[in-house]
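Table S2 (text version). Query chain:
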Amino acid sequence: MAISTVHDREADAVYVTLAHGAPVRTVEFDPGTVVDVDAAGNPIGIEILRPCREWPLAAISERFALNAATVDTLASIADGFRRPFHVSDAFRSIDMSRLVQAPC
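Corresponding structure-token output:
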């Protein structure tokens, strides 16, 4: 399964689905990061509140022995939320109110 994300802008949260399955418990890494785990103890999803902040990827990777490709993908997703939105002068005519990200 490919990793997928759902971003809830109103809640300022992102959910990253790692695998199919039903969560049987949740592991909290910090007050804004939880990992849903299946019956076998495998991570199936990660919820991040305020996704523009630093994600505890090292701790999650260590706890669940995530492979390098998964860690790289998660790091890329996290970086996408931390980078400020830049627009070149050529695109100033776009309605920017529809593109603004929530502040950290």
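Notes on Table S2: The CA atoms of residues 52 and 102 lie 8 Å apart. The chain has one domain: 4-98.
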